[in-house]
Amino acid sequence: MSSHHPDEVLLMEYSAGSLSEPMALCVRMHLEKCSRCRGQLDMLNSLGAIMMDTSSASHIAATHSAEDVSEDLFSTIMNRLDAEQATTTTDKPAAKTVSTSRLTPLAKLLGKELEELPWKRQLGDVSVCDISNYFGTGERVTLQKLVAGGRAPAHRHGGTETTVVLHGAFADSNGVFEAGDMVVLDEHGDHRPVALHGEDCYTLSVLTAPVQLTGRFSRMLNPFIR
Amino acid sequence: MNVIHQQTSNINKGQNVTPLKESTRRAERSKDHWSQLLERVGHSQDRSAYHELYQHFGPQIKYYALSNGLAHMAEELVQEVMISIWRRATLYDWRKAAASTWIFTIARNQRIDMLRKQKRSSSEMAMETEDLWQIPGDGENDPLPSLHRIIAERRIRDSFKHLPEEQVTVLAKVYMEHKSHQIVANEMGIPLGTVKSRVRLALNKLKVILQDQDL
Ligand SMILES: [Zn+2]
Q1: Which of B69, B95, B120 is the last residue of a domain?
Q2: Which residues of chain B are modeled with pLDDT < 70?
Q3: Angle at CA A213, nearest 5°, toward A15 and B193?
Q4: Is B124 exposed, middle or buried (0-12, 13-18, 19+ CB in 10 A)?
Q5: Is the N or C terminus of chain B more exposed, i.e. has fewer CB atoms within 10 Å?
Q6: Packing angle between helix A21-31 and helix A8-16, nearest 10 degrees?
Q7: Any chain A CB within 8 A of the CB of B27?
């Protein structure tokens, strides 16, 4: 069980399906380890279903016109299903969609073990592997490796950095972060992580450029330092 | 926060007192209409049940697409979601989710999928939409105990009616228009902090936030 969770606002954007793919991946890697957030997400998905129901109902009430779905469209759907059934030999096509693989989406994306990646040595005990190109969302997506017992040099972030621990653990002034733990740091955060437990620590980070807002600007709060 | 705590411990107490079998039986009886229809599609490929699901959820899915500004693919989305429902109905387990929740996640994933396909060739991306957005461990992990889940779901539905409009508006923008909280804040001309606190107020009221003791 993880102890550093995405905040409910982030989890809601995940439930709504509106996060960018790199951010969704961070949340997804957290969910892998966190039953508490899986339960919370279940509830948020129920809320999504209610929103879908009530929003369309109030739209219908307001405009006095139902968003009709026609019988023609239903026939089209049934014809497609019949055609499909005729070409498939198995009588239960659904069985094909069951994934037996327990690989995480990150493992599927990388296609290799974390140790085998083309790591680039950076400052001190930190190595980095940039995977932004897999996504093309404009966010900087990196994997980081902090060698066992190693210490990263003190650094600051431009923009907001969301990090999830993939393997091992690290500690910094904000606390101890084990596999699955998530931390959001904004540009004011200053941290100096140390890898724990005598093993290499691997993390996934998404760096989002600072949001340019004037006047009403309110900085993103780090949910873990309240 | 105390209020939530109270609620959580009450639920837990309820669960401990009720023997599992009895609670399963009680949950079975409170299975909703749409979940029963969906089971009929899964078990016996019941076409009239499927048609009823289409009439109920079809307009919702269509409106879901329209709210996203995807009018040009609204009918396509309805079609893809309905096909998906038929194909997967055998996998549906009422103990894990109400039919409406199950269908919502399919609609959400199909929408993401369709937008992805528009943007790039799907081969470029090794990650399946499903892998990225579905709760991991479905089928292995214990789902929320069924009765507990059904009660929680019903409670969300009931207390939703009493939410102030300003909170409903924010939730609708996030779920129906897929806006980030930051964009909602910009649009409404209010600080991000205010948007977030409205969301938190709503979630507290709906008791979506259940286990604050772990925070
Ligand atoms: Zn969590």
Answers
A1: B120
A2: 1-30, 120-126, 137-145, 209-215
A3: 50
A4: exposed
A5: N
A6: 110
A7: no
CB contact under 8 A, A3 and B64: no
Residue of B nearest to A48 (CA): B175
**What CATH number is associated with residue B173?**
1.10.10.10
Contacts of A60 in chain B (CB under 8 A): 59
Inter-chain touch B62–A92, beta carbons under 8 Å: no
Crossing angle of helices A35-63 and B146-160, rounded to 10°: 40
Cα distance between residue A223 and residue B61, in whole Å: 34
With a pLDDT cut of 90, the percent of chain B lying above it is: 48
Domain with CATH 2.60.120.10 in chain A: 104-224
State the residue for tokens 């991000």: B192
pLDDT tens digits, one per residue of B34-87: 999 999 999 999 999 999 999 999 999 999 999 888 888 999 999 999 999 999
- Residue B170 sits in which domain range? 162-215
Total domain count for chain B?
2
B144 with A9: Cβ contact below 8 A: no
Instruction: Map A20-79 to HEC letters.
Output: CHHHHHHHHHHHCCCHHHHHHHHHHHHHHHHHHHHHHHHHHHHHCCCCCCCHHHHHHHHH
B9-to-A21, A30, B5, B16 alpha-carbon distances in Å: 36, 26, 6, 11
Question: Tell me, what amino acid is at A65?
Answer: S
What residue in A sits closest to B196 (Cα-Cα)?
A: A9
State the Cα–Cα distance between residues B186 and B166, nearest whole angstrom. Answer: 15
Does domain A8-88 fall under CATH 1.10.10? My reply is yes
A113 alpha-carbon distance from chain centroid: 19
Q: Is A130 helix (H, G, I), strand (E, B) or coil?
A: strand
Whether residues B33 and B97 fall in one domain: yes
* Domain stops at, among B65, B93, B120: B120
Please give the average per-residue pLDDT across A84-93, as a whole number. 64
Q: Does domain A104-224 have CATH number 1.10.260.40?
A: no
